[in-house]
Amino acid sequence: MVSPSVLMVGCRESAPEFGHDRVRAMSLEISRDLPTEAAMQDVSVVVDKLFGTPQSPRWPRRWMRSEAEQNLVSLQRLEIAAGGVRSDQANVHSGLYQEHCVICHGIAGSGTGAASRLQVPYPRDFRAGVFKWKSTTRSEKPTRDDLERALVSGIPGTPMPSFRTLPSSDRDALVDYVIYLSVRGEVERRLLAHAVDMLDYDESAPADELRIQLRDEEALAQQSGADSTASMQLDELSDGQRAIADVIHDVVGRWVSAESSPVPPQPSDEGEALAASVARGRELFNGPVVACAGCHGQDGVGGLPSLDYDDWTKEFTTRIGITPEDTEAVKPFRKAGALPPRKIEPRVLAEGLLRGGDDPETLYRRIHHGIAGTPMPGIEIVVPSEEGTGVSPRDVWDLVNFLEAMKN
Question: Roughly how many angstroms between the first and final C-alpha of the chain, as a whole number?
Answer without folding.
Answer: 44
